[in-house]
Write a structure and sequence with these properties.
single chain; 657 residues; alpha/beta; 6-stranded mixed sheet; 21 strands; elongated
Length: 657
């Protein structure tokens, strides 16, 4: 079975320069389109190649030299930034120090020819088999910028309104973008520059690729949205195929098959379970994650299904002396997460197998000289049942076998040959030193990766705390608003309850069950009290208990009323106005003209209950009758005055004649 899985989920483009130079005006390219079965060949210009990439969006663009597509680093970064989101540029010949394409093709059994079309085909086939390195110039962080879509102008009477509208539109679109990011549960940071009437711009730094963000680049009226991936400091190469180390595999067979992968250091690397997968799927999953040294089960004897997997990988087998109890499996896997009991059993089998071989692994490691692959030696000792010494001797013999085959009789070296030999030794020493430095550099890179991982975890935690604080603040503001609305509602209820109490008191006065007055209920009439003869006092009394036509009104202080105040009171059409204090002439005239009786309150026996009062019906009728008598006399006096005035005017006219 192949140790590689196919990278071919879609179409792969193999590209090699056919003629010209990318630094020139019109380079042409040999293009091979490979979909895993069929090959399509064509010769295209650089412009047409770019158009085909945009239209078809291939999974991979494979080449033996990335600088055949761009003249320099800046153009290469621009080319990478213009690729569709799902398209990768792959250099199949390696990373910073590429190998010849012919050597790589020969190593992987891929047909090769020196013609550009043959080289393009070889590149496409290699990339389809996960050979090569992805060329990347961008991180997985994307910047989404919401900004003005047009200028705010340079003057005019409506410039402020125009600017307000644009900034308001930017703020509205920014809030929509933020809501969409929240709906997708994406981590982001927001930087807003506020301006007159809204936002001048809003920048969202999102921890995701552009394809994962539910916002697209567009310009609409007053607002434009720009999306740009964050650039790296330089060019990065990522191998398509991961390194496959030697591992320990635990398997729990059954209706649901579970597989766990552990390293030779006893660390659980991956775990998986499935009800639908067959043997081929399980083997492929294991192959993608490492080369098994030991296949383990949690029961004894080893189940036939697990034995088949062991024979497939030619690995050593391990089973416990007796079936592992559930509590021991739970205890051994307590530090590693799992989704179901099947995954737990597979993990327990792998970890107990490591425990059984841990001392053996350490003895092998102590005997190894620097530079040898520990996994390869351990595999031959454990699975092949060889001794460490025999394996080391065999490896040394392999290293020197080719040299022994070409051995010849020594001869005297010339001066030039001796210099060459010395230089070669010097080169070997320098190369050895370079290897040591590279190992140290790799260790430091691993440490940097570890620290960056810790830093990223801390940043994620901090972002979660910021989002949580933001959510708490929002809920707190909502609670404060609801408390404020509740207090207002309570005040309104209290006011309405007070009004209801006053209306109940009025109802008691208007009905025969008035029980707060000690006198007999018959022969009493309710009185509406107005503190002062002002418009404010009249309206306040009307709001509290209402003033209706034919009500008896008592003005506690009648002085100072003017025309509008008297007209306001007359509009309620009271039965009689009882007053204390002097009434202005203008107010008296208006009430008289409106035929509203006015009398002194002292002539009526009243008893007050809170803001209300009650009076004897007889006393009120007496005041009204007295006013009518005085009103009759007053009308007669008015008529007499009018007759006297007419006579005087007539006489004055005769005298003039």
């Amino acid at each position: 079975m192949s140790t590689r899985t196919s990278a071919l989920d879609a179409v792969v483009y193999g590209v090699d320069i056919q003629s010209g130079d990318v630094r020139g005006d019109a380079p042409s390219y040999a293009l091979v389109r490979y979909d895993g079965e069929d090959l399509e060949r064509d010769v295209v210009t650089h412009r047409k190649l770019r158009r085909l990439i945009d239209d078809e969006e291939p999974a991979i663009i494979a080449t033996d030299n990335m600088y055949e597509l761009a003249a320099d680093k800046d153009q290469l970064i621009h080319f990478l930034g213009s690729l569709p989101t799902g398209t990768k540029l792959v250099q199949v010949t390696g990373a910073e120090q590429p190998e010849p394409l012919s050597r790589v093709a020969k190593r992987h059994g891929i047909p090769y020819g020196k013609e550009p079309m043959k080289e393009a085909e070889a590149a496409a086939r290699l990339a389809a088999h996960n050979v090569g390195h992805e060329v990347s110039a961008f991180t997985d962080t994307t910047e989404v910028k919401v900004a003005r879509g047009r200028s705010t102008g340079s003057g005019g009477w409506s410039e402020d309104r125009y600017t307000r509208r644009i900034h308001g539109s930017v703020r509205t679109r920014a809030r929509e973008v933020e809501s969409e990011l929240e709906d997708e549960n994406l981590a982001y940071e927001k930087d807003v520059r506020e301006s007159y009437g809204g936002y001048a711009n809003a920048i969202f730094t999102v921890e995701a690729k552009p394809s994962e963000i539910p916002v697209s680049r567009n310009r609409s009226g007053d607002v434009r949205v720009e999306i740009e991936r964050e650039r790296r400091d330089g060019i990065e190469f990522r191998p398509l195929a991961k390194r496959r180390d030697h591992v320990i595999v635990g398997i729990d067979p059954g209706t649901t098959t579970a597989v766990a992968i552990a390293s030779l250091e006893g660390e659980v690397l991956d775990v998986w379970s499935s009800r639908m997968s067959d043997t081929a799927d399980v083997i492929e999953w294991i192959v993608e994650r490492g080369r098994p040294i030991i296949i383990a089960a949690d029961v004894t004897p080893m189940p036939e299904t697990v034995e088949k997997f062991r024979r497939s990988f030619d690995a050593a087998g391990w089973t416990p002396e007796s079936d592992l109890p559930v509590d021991e499996k739970q205890h051994r896997t307590r530090e590693d997460p799992y989704d179901d009991d099947h995954q737990r059993d597979a993990m327990a089998a792998a970890l107990y197998a490591f425990d059984a071989h841990e001392d053996q692994f350490e003895r092998i490691a102590r005997k190894l000289p620097p530079g040898l692959d520990r996994g390869e030696v351990t595999a031959r000792v454990v699975a092949g049942e060889e001794s460490v010494e025999a394996v080391l001797t065999d490896l040394e013999d392999d290293d020197h076998s080719e040299e022994d085959q070409t051995k010849h009789e020594p001869r005297e070296l010339t001066e030039e040959e001796r210099q060459i030999k010395d230089l070669k030794r010097q080169v070997e020493r320098l190369q050895s030193h370079v290897g040591t430095l590279e190992d140290r550099l790799e260790q430091k890179d691993d440490r940097i990766d570890e620290l960056e991982s810790d830093l990223e975890a801390a940043r994620r935690k901090e972002r979660k705390e910021v989002r949580r604080d933001r959510e708490v603040t929002r809920h707190r503001r909502t609670a404060e608003r609801l408390e404020y609305e509740r207090d207002e509602a309570r005040e309104e209820v209290e006011a309405l309850e007070a009004k209801v109490d006053r209306m109940k008191a009025l109802w008691k006065l208007d009905h025969s069950n008035f029980s707060d007055v000690s006198a007999k209920k018959e022969g009493l009439v309710p009185v509406k009290v107005i503190e002062k003869f002002t418009k404010g006092a009249i309206r306040e009394a009307d709001d509290q208990y209402g003033i209706a036509p034919s009500d008896v009104v008592f003005v506690r202080d009648a002085s100072g009323a003017g025309r509008s105040t008297a007209e306001l009171l007359a509009g309620f059409e009271p039965r009689v106005v009882l007053k204390k204090g002097g009434l202005s002439e203008i107010a008296d005239e208006i009430l008289f003209d409106e035929d509203i009786p006015v009398g002194p309150a002292d002539d009526v026996a009243m008893q007050e209950v809170d803001e209300l009062a009650v009076a004897r019906e007889d006393d009120v009728d007496a005041v009204i009758d007295d006013w009518h008598e005085r009103a009759r006399d007053r009308r007669l006096d008015r008529k007499a005055e009018m007759v006297d005035q007419l006579i005087s005017e007539h006489r004055a006219g005769d005298n003039e004649v």
